[in-house]
Design a protein that fits this description.
Elements: H1 3-12, E1 17-21, H2 25-35, E2 42-47, E3 51-54, H3 69-78, E4 83-88, H4 97-107, E5 116-121, H5 128-131, E6 135-136, H6 144-161, E7 168-169, H7 171-181, H8 186-200, E8 202-203, H9 207-219, E9 225-227, H10 241-254, E10 269-274, H11 280-291, E11 295-298, H12 300-303, H13 310-324, E12 328-332, H14 336-339, H15 348-362, E13 367-373, H16 381-384, E14 391-395, H17 400-413, H18 423-429, H19 435-451, H20 458-467, H21 471-474, H22 476-486, E15 491-492
Parallel strand pairs: 1-5, 1-6, 2-4, 4-5, 7-8, 10-13, 10-14, 11-12, 12-13, 14-15
Antiparallel strand pairs: 2-3, 9-11
Helix pairs in contact: 1-2, 3-4, 6-8, 7-9, 8-9, 13-15, 17-18, 17-19, 18-20, 19-20
């Protein structure tokens, strides 16, 4: 059934109390006007600023009584003709016992006509006594046709305000913009579309990053997700060749470009385990760039709340926001810190894990998960079983060839010619170094060269490498145990 049919059915059934949560009051009023073509009732609207008005005529009536809530409820009770009453932002007045009682009398049809009362507001919280009597109706979000009509209206508005200048339109970009606006209310979608159009008088591919940022800021009011503006390319990440091929093979399927390919499910995500500093975070960022979609980072620490049930609620809101921003990559950094098993938190971690596992199995939107972890022994077994992620990759310490590549990358980023350095010798000396430690050796070498007022060369960089003690030496037992655990249990990111 359509949205209009659903609402008409509620009115035909004389539903006594309907609750609608929305920011778009105008659309709700228009929707009720349309229902009068299918089931006729006198239609009224009340607000504290305008009072009670009849609005089913060609011209709205003047207020038919004082604007206060008590008078409005009394007039509805005395009405001799059953009607529909849209009460805008009425719920705050239900804090008064007299208003609550009067509304309950109307809902239970005590000495009054069978009216349909509709509470409309951005967020409507009712006392338990009234919640049990209410039917909540959720307006459907606009479809592609409605969004396209809205874009045309905003383009026409731009032309009127700019001397008839037409909006430059890239049809392919418009389709992508429409796809990204899905999941938003019409009010929010119109606000974003207006910003895109009025910024430069065009709708083009250049608008897509700005659209992603605006949509993220709109949906992430709770602040549990972080929009990662700075991603990186796979070409800027040394090693991990097998992982790079794996992502590239799945790109078209994830984006829906190969829809209909028999037997291929959209990729769900991957878990990256490994030694600290070996590039798991960079690979998460590069995966988003590889897919060509926004990257969101979920901070588990911001989810936790001292009040019962709030942590799980925060997780639900964060994942729902990620789904509305799809297609995207959701990066859960150091996932073990949020899911470590134990009974010291009153079972919060277990409930969070349960909800996350259910969402991983049942989500429908293209949200690709990249979870990273350093302490694999703290991960719950339920998360590691096959099916939770498409693959579990281990990001190991770089081999000699990868260390050469890392040295070349970090020297090049600092405007140094890598060919002036003895890279194979430096790579051999940095055996056991992580990528982060190799970068830090280059940085330390530059500081030393600056202090000595000389140019960084192989000898100075070699000296910094030999003076460093990598994590594989400082925590040799833990690193060795991790590498031993990963052998045979995970897939090497390189290869």
């Amino acid at each position: 059934m359509s949205e209009l049919q659903d609402l008409s059915a509620l009115i035909r059934a004389n539903t006594p109390l309907i609750v609608i949560e929305t920011q778009d009051e105008g659309r709700v009023v228009e929707l009720f006007r349309q229902t009068l073509m299918h089931v006729w009732r006198a239609l009224h609207r009340w607000s504290i600023t305008e009072g009670l008005r009849r609005i089913d005529m060609d011209k709205e009536d003047d207020a038919i009584g004082p604007p206060d809530a008590s008078s409005a409820l009394q007039m509805i009770r005395q009405a001799e003709q059953r009607g529909i009453y849209l009460l805008l932002d009425f719920h705050p007045y239900l804090g008064y016992a007299s208003h609550q009682r009067a509304l309950r009398d109307l809902v239970q049809r005590r000495h009054c006509e069978a009216h349909v009362l509709v509470l409309v507001g951005a967020k409507v919280e009712l006392p338990a006594e009234l919640e049990a009597l209410a039917t909540r109706f959720n307006p459907r979000l606009p479809d592609l046709n409605a969004l396209l009509k809205m874009l045309r209206e905003e383009a026409a508005t731009y032309a009127r305000e700019n001397g008839g200048k037409r909006v430059e339109v890239d049809n392919e970009a418009v389709q992508l913009i429409l796809r990204n606006l899905r999941g938003l209310s019409m009010v929010d979608a119109r606000r974003i579309a207006r910003q895109l159009i009025f910024a430069d008088g065009a709708l083009s591919q250049d608008d897509l990053p700005q659209l992603a940022r605006l949509k993220f800021e709109l949906l992430n009011r709770a602040g549990h997700l972080h929009y990662e503006y700075d991603t990186t390319r796979f070409a800027d990440v040394a090693g991990a060749n097998r992982l790079k091929r794996w992502v590239n093979q799945r790109r078209s399927i994830f984006l829906g470009g190969s829809a209909g390919t028999a037997g291929l499910d959209p990729p769900k995500g991957m878990l990256l385990l490994g030694v600290q500093g070996c590039g798991k975070s960079m690979l998460a960022k590069a995966t988003a760039a590889g897919f060509g979609v926004p990257l969101l980072r979920l901070d588990f620490g911001s989810l936790y709340d001292k009040y019962h049930g709030e942590t799980e609620k925060n997780l639900r809101q964060a994942l729902a926001s990620a789904e509305q921003l799809a297609p995207c990559v959701l990066w859960i950094d150091e996932i073990e810190k949020g899911l470590a098993s134990g009974g010291e938190d009153g079972g919060v971690s277990r409930r969070v894990l349960g909800f996350l596992l259910t969402w991983l199995a049942e989500r429908k939107e293209p949200v690709f998960i990249v979870a990273t972890a350093n302490q694999v022994h703290e991960l719950p077994a339920e998360l590691l079983r096959k099916g939770r992620f498409d693959e579990i990759f281990f990001v190991d310490l770089p081999d000699a060839n990868t260390r050469v590549e890392l040295l070349r990358l970090h020297l090049g980023r600092r405007q140094l010619n890598a060919d002036d350095f003895a890279l194979p010798a430096l790579a051999a000396a940095s055996d056991g170094f992580s990528g982060a430690e190799i970068e830090q050796a280059v940085v330390s070498g530059l500081y030393a060269a600056h202090a000595e007022e000389r140019v960084l060369d192989t000898d100075l960089l070699m000296q910094e490498i030999r003076n460093s003690r990598p994590l594989s030496v400082l925590m040799a037992e833990q690193v060795t145990a991790l590498r031993e655990w990963a052998r045979g249990r995970t897939v090497s990111a390189d290869g």
